[in-house]
Amino acid sequence: MARIRSIKPGFFTSEDVAELPLRARLTWIGLWTHCDDQGRAKDNVKLIKAAVWPLDQVTLSDIEDDLATLAKCGRIVRYEVDGKNYLAVTNWHDHQSPNRPTRSKLPPPPEESGSTHAQSSEPAVSKHGGLMSGEEGIGEEGRGARARDNPPPEHCPKHPSGTLDPCGACGTAKRQRAKWEAEQSGRSKLADLERQRLELKAARMAVAACRICDSDGYRTQPDGTRGGVCDHVRREPGARERAFAATEGAAS
């Protein structure tokens, strides 16, 4: 179901946004209206096509390319839970602040499960639709940005440089800092996995598009025997290995 969302003027003057292909930008904005109030949706190109591009000559393959681009650029996170695919808009509350947010029926990305960051990005809602006690006055944008980018202090405000006799607040601060570092590490690992996935996809497409090499990136001789490594594979070190892994994955 489409939802009313807002867009900031700074979107159109952002240099980072300008680096995205035009169609990917529109798909990204469309996802804002398609995702629930916590920025999550099923990772299903057919559903996204129906919701975002119902009247345009945009193919399912086009949408998949847009999603891959958005994931590569860190605009969305694609993940799997219990065999089902989902996506989440990265830093959702930096972009949207629903007036009466409802809880998501979809699972959060793995790196957010059970973390304080996930709890802060999905505030408790009262029966009247407002935020529960303790949430008033805290901007969604500021809260999301703080949890994402700024490491929490390792010590309490009374002992900013540490102390030989740590207090209880120092212990809490230390645990929060450790949790933040673990979350940062998880995001980095997810980014690496996504990069590897895109490299495999690119290698598979390059081999499939080549008319003079086989599925492993080797030239095929006129007599049908295997020759040397194809030029497009030779130009990109490691491409043959990635292409082989990609074709193996496609066959399994």
**Which architecture of the largest domain does the CATH hierarchy give at level 2?**
Orthogonal Bundle
Low-pLDDT runs of 5+ residues are 114-143
Q: How confident overall, as mean pLDDT?
A: 75
Shape from CA axes?
A: extended
Largest sheet: 3 strands, antiparallel
Query: How do the strands of the widest beta sheet line up side by side?
Result: 1-3-2
Number of domains as seen in the coordinates = 2
Radius of gyration: 23 Å
Instruction: Report the CATH C-level class of the largest domain.
Output: Mainly Alpha
Element-level helix/strand string: HHEHHEEHHHHEEHH
Share of helix among residues? Answer: 40-55%
CATH-assigned homologous superfamily of the largest domain:
Winged helix-like DNA-binding domain superfamily/Winged helix DNA-binding domain
Please summarize what this structure is.
With 252 residues, the protein is mainly alpha-helical. Helices cover 46% and strands 9% of the residues. It has 2 domains: 1-122 and 140-150, Orthogonal Bundle (Arc Repressor Mutant, subunit A), CATH 1.10.10.10; 199-251, no CATH class.
